[in-house]
Amino acid sequence: MRIGTRLILLLIILLPACKKENPEEKARAFFKAFKSNFMDDYWRHFPESATLNGYHAYDSELRIPDDSARRETRDFAGAILEKLNAVDAGLLDPRDRSDYFLIRNEMQSQLWYSDTLKPWAWQPSYYNPGALVGYMLRGRYEPLEARLRHILERLEKLPAYYDAAQASIRKPSKPHTEMARVITDGMIELLEKDIPDSLRQAGLYGSKDRETLDRALHAARSFRGFLDRLMEKGAFRDFRPGEALYERKFELDLQSDYTPESLREAALYEKEEAHTQILRLTQKLWPKYFAEERSTFSLAESARLIDRISEKHTTPDSFLQAIRRQLPELIRFIREKDLLFIDPEKPLKVRVAPKYLRGIAIASISAPGPYDKYENTWYNVSPVWEMDEEAAESYLREYNDYMMQILNIHEAIPGHYVQLVYANESPDIIKSIFGSGSMIEGWACYAERMMLEEGWGENSPELRLMYYKWYLRIIGNSLIDIGVHSRGWERDSVLRFLTEEAFQERSEAEGKWRRVQRSSVQLCSYFAGLIEILDLRDEIKSRKGDGFDLKNFHERFLSYGSIPVKYIRRLMLTETDEAPARDHSEVPDERR
Ligand code: ZN
Ligand code: ZN
């Protein structure tokens, strides 16, 4: 063995000397050099994203969003694309090849957003410095004093920032203007209250800092006034990007082999499948819940049954405890069934959601970024016990005893939390940073499906019924996004679809209509990611036949970081199937 290794090493050392112009090696060397500079160039160019991704070398920079900044973006992205064009991606090794495509897609997106979609000209909500400042104020990456210094340096540029924003906005869309008002109110609150409080706490509230703060506050308020005038004027454009732009956005954002049309077809098929399953389960469960009544077995009756089963829920006071109790059970099940390795060194901690995360979702995961992978991962749970009785009851019915299991699988185990732990172990920064939201959401949705397939919940028909209701929401997200953005659906079609075909409450349906007016494509990411993973699993299963191993599939799938499923597919199909996905031999047995 040893001799063999040395021989190969010797050959590798000798090769460049005798064969200088090997194109493969040249391409690899070029790309390696390119990659080592690229990330820092990128962060220097996009300092706000740098901060938000945990890279803190440019924390005092704030880009003024004017024409000259957009020209710089064009030049920067153009130059990178030119460099990439000089490399033949086919000569790179598979992992570098996917980095190549990720960077290329990112640069094409930057160019396209800046020059073609132009959200800066018609989506006032594009201007959201509060997200950045809020993150810096609450982050723990540096002592408070240092973070406040950087915040103040950025706030010095805020008047110029808002001036440029105001000059850039031409004919806005109404939903994006409404959203911008809420966002700007948040910024004003930070400037009026949170930042001064923190400055006092750090003993930093000098007169120069107060002046900076005053000027920033004045700028934010005057931008808020500008937004009010836009609302009064009422000369709005459609909130939709338009069909052609939507298709290109779909391509750039999802990096999927699906198109809006093929995804829509898949979603319609799955919708029928879900309805069939729901009707079958209704037939089975009906006598248990409505013994005295005959049923016609329609979706309306299924809705009544779902309603009845939703009554089985926990209380506000035991909600957090119920979630905490379930997580070890999920881990135990995964170990018993040998579904994938879960790193005991990176435990998930459940906490009451901090204020700024409340109201968005009942539960969410806060994971450390690739630059600070030793931070905790948190499972944030909104305090149901602080809601008024009616709101709490509605939440608890939605996250009843069955749905809560699906929620925990999706958010935590083996959904988002487990995936993000794997992603942070993947050593490649490019794969972490240019991650795919669709892969991330797709994995969480896949986790639900897979756990039920493996028998989680003892095959309870109630759990399955609730799963299909949840699944219809995932399918529905895609149908609504595509319907609204490329088939002219209006509010009525959205509400009708959600309440009649997807078992959603009217209030949720209204919320979804608001959301689809403010974003596009993102709602497709769940279903697109899920079916791509299921397609891939089928493909590998059929190649391997009896040799297919689910645990191996999961660990390999997760080992590439959060990159688009289509690149994972290429990597999984190229790399040798015999090599283990991860080496856990260093972990003592009892801790696996
Ligand atoms: Zn109740
Ligand atoms: Zn999710």
Overview of this structure, please?
The relative contact order is 0.09. The chain is mostly helical and 592 residues long. It has helices at residues 2-18, 23-45, 47-52, 67-85, 94-117, 119-122, 129-138, 144-155, 158-168, 174-201, 207-233, 243-254, 260-289, 299-309, 319-336, 389-398, 403-411, 416-425, 429-433, 437-453, 461-486, 491-501, 506-518, 525-544, 550-558, 565-574; strands at residues 348-352, 363-366, 377-381. The protein is globular, with a radius of gyration of 26 Å. The longest helix has 30 residues, at 260-289. It folds into three domains: 23-45 and 66-122; 127-233, no CATH class; 287-574, no CATH class. The protein has a three-stranded mixed beta sheet with strand order 1-3-2, with helices on one face. One zinc ion binds next to helix 20. One zinc ion is lined by residues 410, 416, 441, 444.
Set out the fold topology.
Blueprint: H1 2-18, H2 23-45, H3 47-52, H4 67-85, H5 94-117, H6 119-122, H7 129-138, H8 144-155, H9 158-168, H10 174-201, H11 207-233, H12 243-254, H13 260-289, H14 299-309, H15 319-336, E1 348-352, E2 363-366, E3 377-381, H16 389-398, H17 403-411, H18 416-425, H19 429-433, H20 437-453, H21 461-486, H22 491-501, H23 506-518, H24 525-544, H25 550-558, H26 565-574
Parallel strand pairs: 1-3
Antiparallel strand pairs: 2-3
Lateral arrangement of strands in the main beta sheet: 1-3-2
Count of helical stretches? 26
| Fraction of residues in helix | 55-70%
What structural category arises from helix and sheet content? mainly alpha
